[in-house]
Every structure is written in structure tokens, then in C-alpha cells.
Write a structure and sequence with these properties.
alpha/beta; five-stranded parallel beta sheet; five-stranded mixed beta sheet; 12 strands
């Protein structure tokens, strides 16, 4: 309930109008916005070294002490502005505080970028009605704009996800809303000040650069050409509906040889071949937990870790073989009845001819595409999960030092072994022939459709 709010935070960025919003709020009796209270480079406002009895050094040592003072002011509604590059230690406590009202202020990011650059050029960050704007033009820098956009959009996505996960709603404002009395009145009502009939926006600040962009940007034509290459609607984004995976630590295998070598296997790859190789190098250890894995790593400075990437079509073939030989009958029956995979009856699986096997494999690839896109009721098995998602699961705990390509096992493993201090590793028998049936172009296209993330992420082409 809005009446329960005891503080507020304005999530904004530079040149989005947050100064004007702060001035509007500070004009309301009983409401105070304490500026950028957690800006690492200042304390609320420029040239201030103390806030509510807390110095900058004290805030640096313990920002939560200032946060507690800000939000515990009975009979008053305090708040502050928070940008993506402010002290990250207070962000989660702010989000978790349901009695802190969340206000999200946005502006066209290109306008914000140009306005920020103009402010840096002129050192004029606010403009009162009695002041004269300093004329200036900026030179657009595409790389700089993309960095700014990536940082602010990444923060906004994180903020949105955390508010969704905690079941909280924010009051959203756009730059153009800040001079609308009805919207400002609605904001104060959201904050619990329903005693106010009308809230007038602050009038002591005026727009600094009201001209069109063409008059503010010296290389306007170059800016337009650069922006044409951007993709604001994510037209080329690969949709991801595959379930997230965990780090799968119990499957990791390590050898004591050299300074230590840790294998992080992707199911459906040449796992047994690598295990056999590791056992030839020295004593191997498996069955790790996250705790015992950390202990193993700490005890072996200079260790190396790796995963092996397999071509998606070959890996799908391995998953299909796993389904036929090791999969359970109930799962195969479900694929027959519901998922349009023309598997023969159980007593005919062993006699599946080569041509028939390829035809059923094509059905299986079509099923994989639907399964990885979240369109089936069957869980995504680790044997056929995308390698991109499996490695993302690993990265939630540990990132492998090297991604070894299966078609380069002798070369890549030799390099890895040397890095781990293992001399003369025996690498015979590390290559395996590719079944000729997998050179069918239709199968290649079906595999690419199913594993598009892997093809794009790792640069896979047709089977060599």
C-alpha cells in the first residue's frame, strides 16, 4: 500500500530530468530528496562532505549506516536518487525494503547522451530561469554512446527483474512527464500524500538545450549513419526458452598429474575418451561437491580446467543413440505418441536399418528444436541440452580455462597439458571417425535449426 511507504528512491541516469524531479518533490512539505546520496564521487550534491551527520569517509566504510538514517525519519518522507554507477552495496537492501517506494525515471537515451556531453563541455549541469545557457555543440562518438547504452540498459534489466522477483511495482516516469501537474500529483499520491490536491512542477529550472539534435551535434549526418547499424528492437536476438542449468559439479573429473587438470564434461560429448586419457596421466578424482571442488582448486595453484565442444549434429546423433540404447521405454513411447518421432516398436529397435535410422533421426532433430524452445512437456535432457546453456550453468560456479574443440583434441589437449605442467602427455586415439550419414545436408540444416544458439555462439559450420 502506498500509505506504508516511509522513503523513496528515484532510479534514473544522468540528464534524465532527475534534478527537476528532485526540486518538485522538495517543494512539497514533509518530503525531502537528498540528491545522489550514494554517488561515489560526491555526497548528495557537489562540494558536500556530510549528510545527516555522516561524512563521506564514513559512508565509504559503511553505506548502510547512511541508508538507515535516510529511511528512518518518522513523520517525514525522505528519498534520494540512484544511478547505475552508484554504490552497488546499497542496491539490494533498497530493493528488499518494501517500504521504500520505487520511482523509475527514463529519457530517450540519445537525448540523455547528447545532453550529458554538452554538460561536460560547458560545465553547466543545471539552468535556472535567470541564467543564460552556454552555446555548444558536441561530436557524437558511436563507441562511447554504445558503452553508455549497454551499461544503463543492463542495469535497467537487472532492476526490472529484481522488482518482478520481489513482487513490487514501481512508478514510471518519462522526461516529458516532469512538467505535467497531473502526473506529479499522481506521483505524490503514489507516495502516500493523498492530502495534496495538485502538485505543480518546479519552475526554477528550465531546459538547457531545447534545440533539435541537428543543432547540437556537429557530425549529425555521421551520427545518423552510425545509428542505422544499431538494432533497438533486437531483431537479430536469438530467442532463449531453454531451461537454465546448474553447474553440474558432481560430473567434474580431475587428475593429480602436473599442477592439476580439471575436466568439466558436456554430456553428449567425447566424455569417456577424455576420462580414459586423464586416467592415463595419473590418479583421477570425481564426485565433487562445490565445497570439495573449491578445496581441490585452492590446494593446486596453477591448475587448469577445460570443457570439450562437439559439433551439434554429431552430438545430436550421440543423444539419439543414447535414446535408442539407454533411454527408457516410457520416454520412447511418449516420443512416438505425442512428439511425431517415428520410432519403431520396442522389439524392432535393434533391427532399425541404416536408412530408417536416418529418417527417424530427422524426426528426432525436429523434436529437439521444439524441446529446446520450450514447446514440449518433456524436460530437456543433459545429453541434448545446448552446449551454450550447459556452459552457462558451469559459469555460475566456475569458468573453464579452455574450450577444446573435438576436431582439435590432440593439438588443444597438448597445449593444455603443457600449461598444467604435464610433460609428454600421450594423445593417441583421441580422434574418432564421423559417420558418413551425418554428411546429409538436410540433417545439417535440421541440426542448425535445433541448435542455432550453439552454431552462432561457437561458429560451427557444416560437418567437416
Amino acid at each position: 500500500m502506498s500509505q506504508g511507504f516511509r522513503s523513496f528512491v528515484i532510479f534514473a541516469e544522468m540528464r534524465t530530468g532527475s534534478n527537476l524531479l528532485e526540486a518538485t518533490l522538495n517543494a512539497v512539505r514533509g518530503v525531502t530528496c537528498f540528491g545522489e546520496a550514494f554517488n561515489p564521487y560526491m555526497l548528495g550534491w557537489p562540494d558536500k562532505d556530510e549528510m545527516l551527520g555522516i561524512s563521506r569517509a564514513e559512508r565509504e566504510a559503511d553505506p548502510l549506516a547512511l541508508l538507515a538514517k535516510l529511511t528512518d525519519r518518522p513523520g517525514h518522507l525522505p528519498g534520494f536518487r540512484y544511478f547505475h554507477d552508484h554504490d552497488p552495496r546499497v542496491l539490494e537492501p533498497i530493493i528488499q525494503d518494501r517500504r521504500c517506494a520505487k520511482i523509475i525515471l527514463t529519457r530517450n537515451p540519445l537525448d540523455s547522451y547528447v545532453s550529458t556531453r554538452l554538460a561536460w563541455e560547458t560545465n553547466q549541469w543545471k539552468l535556472n530561469a535567470s541564467e543564460t545557457p552556454i552555446p555548444a555543440r558536441i561530436t557524437y562518438d558511436g563507441e562511447e554512446f554504445r558503452r553508455m547504452l549497454s551499461a544503463t540498459e543492463g542495469f535497467r534489466r537487472h532492476l526490472t527483474a529484481r522488482l518482478q522477483a520481489t513482487g513490487q511495482a514501481a512508478f514510471h516516469l518519462d522526461y516529458d512527464d516532469l512538467r505535467d501537474p497531473e502526473v506529479m500529483t499522481g506521483l505524490l499520491h503514489f507516495l502516500g500524500r493523498t492530502d495534496l490536491d495538485r502538485v505543480e512542477p518546479a519552475r526554477d529550472q528550465v531546459p538547457q538545450n531545447p534545440q533539435e539534435l541537428a543543432r547540437k551535434v556537429a557530425n549529425f549526418d555521421a551520427m545518423q549513419a552510425d545509428l542505422q547499424d544499431m538494432d533497438p528492437f533486437d531483431l537479430h536476438r536469438l530467442p532463449v526458452f531453454e531451461p537454465r542449468r546448474g553447474p553440474a559439479v558432481p560430473s567434474f573429473v580431475a587428475t593429480e598429474a602436473g599442477r592439476g587438470l580439471l575436466f568439466m564434461p558436456v554430456k553428449g560429448g567425447p566424455e569417456q575418451r577424455i576420462r580414459d586419457w586423464l586416467s592415463r596421466l595419473g590418479r583421477i578424482q570425481g564426485g565433487f561437491t562445490q565445497s570439495t571442488l573449491r578445496q581441490w582448486k585452492r590446494a593446486r595453484p596453477g591448475h587448469r580446467s577445460f570443457s570439450v565442444l562437439r559439433h551439434p549434429l554429431l552430438r545430436a546423433w550421440e543423444a539419439f543413440d543414447h535414446l535408442l540404447v539407454q533411454g527408457n521405454a516410457e520416454q520412447r513411447d511418449l516420443l512416438r505418441r505425442l512428439h511425431r518421432v517415428a520410432l519403431p516398436p520396442e522389439d524392432g529397435l535393434a533391427e532399425l536399418s541404416s536408412d530408417a535410422r536416418v529418417a527417424v533421426f530427422a524426426d528426432f532433430l525436429a523434436f529437439l528444436r521444439r524441446n529446446l524452445n520450450g514447446q514440449t512437456s518433456l524436460p530437456t535432457h543433459p545429453v541434448w541440452a545446448s552446449q551454450t546453456e550447459v556452459l552457462s550453468g558451469f559459469a555460475r560456479l566456475a569458468v573453464p580455462d579452455m574450450l577444446v574443440r573435438e576436431d582439435r583434441l590432440p593439438e588443444d589437449l597438448a597445449h593444455l597439458a603443457r600449461a598444467a605442467g604435464i610433460a609428454n602427455p600421450v594423445l593417441d586415439g583421441m580422434t574418432a571417425p564421423i559417420p558418413d550419414v551425418l554428411r546429409d545436408r538436410r540433417l545439417a540444416e535440421a541440426a542448425q535449426a535445433a541448435y542455432l544458439r550453439d552454431y552462432v555462439t561457437f561458429g560451427f559450420g557444416l560437418m567437416p
